[in-house]
Every structure is written in structure tokens, then in C-alpha cells.
Specification:
Length: 293
């Protein structure tokens, strides 16, 4: 079966989680300013594109640590799915009532509750759907990766990573799209699988290449900014490309093999707590502060 949990805590994961929490706050704080064209729209895009790695890295961290565990089916669902599903349902139902009575929307309570199955009842709950789906397929994926040959791993990597990149490029340049969305790959599962693959399979290939990681992170960020800039002007409305795999991939690797970054995990946790409090109190002033400096 899969290898057991590592005996020591992966401090890099704590550091990366802290950074991702901060970046999720930043991307939501700056989204409103980015969503409307203005004379300084390019600078707003530059800031808003910076934290795009956050949510994909959360999925990568989940895959890195969940897929390698060896535990029974009942233990896994009790620890993971039960801990996620109940809060998800409670908060989804709460938001149905919130939209009805606080926002005054003309919705049917029972219809709203039944719609939880089809769509999130508030925007930020979208990530719960792929997360629950990933938890449901995790026991199957664990068995597969425990017995998969190198050929199967390489094919999976090709199907989930390289094929979608090629098809995305074809669609972007020549407006050629595949006959079915199935051929695009599965975005959240791609990052979920990559987290495990980078941690357990490619670890010995990736050490001592930190300069390359820095370069690829910069290239990845610039590709997001450039593609989003031209895509927005072609469409006539601000839009952001989801062609961010390189950016997320190499930033994750950098944290994994650059111990210096992990030294700040504990101070970052304290900083994130106080920043979250300030976010709720002063979020409408944050964008002006960023532009000012």
C-alpha cells in the first residue's frame, strides 16, 4: 500500500499555507479594482495576478499529504469527508437564509436548499465541490498509485498536465477547441495529483535547481499577466487567464527545496491572524494603500 506518514513535520507546507492564506485575502481584496478598466488597470492586473497560485497550491498540498497515507476507508471518511461535508451543508443552508432574509432576494427556501446539490449558494463556497469530489476518489487513487508502473505515472502526467497545456495553447492562438471538455483534463485533480507526484516521485530530480525555479516562477507570472492583458482587450472586458500551471508548479517546488523560506512559518502564522482581522475592518482601504506605495 501507500507509504506511511513521514515522521517529521513538513515545515515548508506550513510556510506555503501561510503565504497562500495571505494571497487568497489579497486576490479577493483587489478583485473589485481589477474588474473595471481604468487608466491604471495594468498595475491593478499586475497585483491581482500575483496571488493566483494560492488555491492551486492548496490542492497540491492536499494531494501531497493525503495520497501518501495508508489508512482504512472508514477512518479516512470519518476524518476528512465528515469534517468537511457537515460544515459545508450547514453554511450552504445558512447562506440560503441569508440571501432570503438579509439580502432580500426573491428565492424559495426549499428550492435554494435543493440547489446546493447543483451550485454553491455563495461564491466562495465553489472550492468545496471539487474538494469533496477529490476526497471521494482518494481511496481509489491511493490504490492505483500504490501499484502503478512508471509508464502509467508518465502517461497520467501527460494526460493531466501536458495535454491540457497543448490544447489550451491551440485554443488561445488558433481558436481550436477539442470536441469535449473531457479532453481539457481536470484542473483540481491535476494539482491534487501533482502535489503527490512532486513530493514522492520527482523529489530526487528537483533538488539543487533553485535558480531554475526562480526563473520559471517569473516566467509563469509574466505569462499570466501578458495573456490576461491581451485576452481582456480582445474580449473587451477584464478577464484573467487560467494558464497558470508553471507559476504554481515552480513556486510549490521552491518552497519544498528552499529551507530559508520555511524558517518564517511560525511568524507568518501570527502575521496572517492579525492581517485577517485588519482585512475585515479595513479591506476597502487596502487597494488604495497598495497603489500608493
Amino acid at each position: 500500500m501507500c507509504s506511511p506518514n513521514p515522521p517529521t513535520r513538513a515545515v515548508y507546507a506550513d510556510a506555503l499555507r501561510c503565504l497562500c492564506v495571505f494571497m487568497v485575502i489579497l486576490i479577493h481584496t483587489t478583485a473589485g479594482a481589477y474588474s473595471v478598466f481604468s487608466p491604471d488597470w495594468a498595475s491593478r492586473l499586475a497585483v491581482n495576478a500575483l496571488p493566483t497560485f494560492a488555491v492551486p497550491c492548496f490542492f497540491m498540498l492536499s494531494g501531497a499529504f493525503i495520497l501518501q497515507k495508508d489508512e482504512g476507508l472508514s477512518d479516512f471518511f470519518r476524518k476528512k469527508l465528515g469534517r468537511v461535508l457537515v460544515p459545508f451543508l450547514v453554511w450552504s443552508i445558512a447562506y440560503v437564509f441569508f440571501k432570503k432574509f438579509a439580502l432580500g432576494q426573491n428565492i424559495n427556501i426549499f428550492r435554494g436548499i435543493s440547489d446546493i446539490y447543483h451550485e454553491p449558494q455563495y461564491d466562495h463556497l465553489w472550492f468545496m465541490y471539487p474538494l469533496i469530489g477529490l476526497y471521494l476518489i482518494t481511496p481509489i487513487v491511493r490504490v492505483i498509485i500504490a501499484h502503478a508502473s512508471s509508464e502509467v505515472f508518465n502517461y497520467t502526467l501527460f494526460f493531466l498536465v501536458f495535454l491540457p497545456i497543448v490544447l489550451s495553447a491551440l485554443d488561445l492562438v488558433w481558436k481550436w477547441a477539442p470536441p469535449s471538455k473531457f479532453f481539457w483534463g481536470f484542473c483540481e485533480f491535476t494539482y491534487f495529483f501533482l502535489g503527490y507526484f512532486l513530493t514522492r516521485r520527482w523529489a530526487h530530480y528537483l533538488e539543487n535547481k533553485k535558480l531554475l525555479f526562480f526563473i520559471m516562477i517569473i516566467v509563469g507570472y509574466l505569462s499570466i499577466f501578458t495573456l490576461s492583458y491581451f485576452q481582456s482587450h480582445v474580449k473587451g472586458v477584464p478577464s484573467k487567464t487560467f494558464f497558470m500551471l508553471l507559476y504554481c508548479l515552480f513556486l510549490y517546488i521552491l518552497f519544498q527545496y528552499f529551507p530559508f523560506l520555511s524558517l518564517y512559518a511560525s511568524p507568518l502564522k501570527k502575521f496572517i491572524f492579525f492581517y485577517e482581522m485588519q482585512y475585515f475592518l479595513y479591506q476597502k482601504y487596502l487597494w488604495g494603500f497598495i497603489i500608493f506605495i
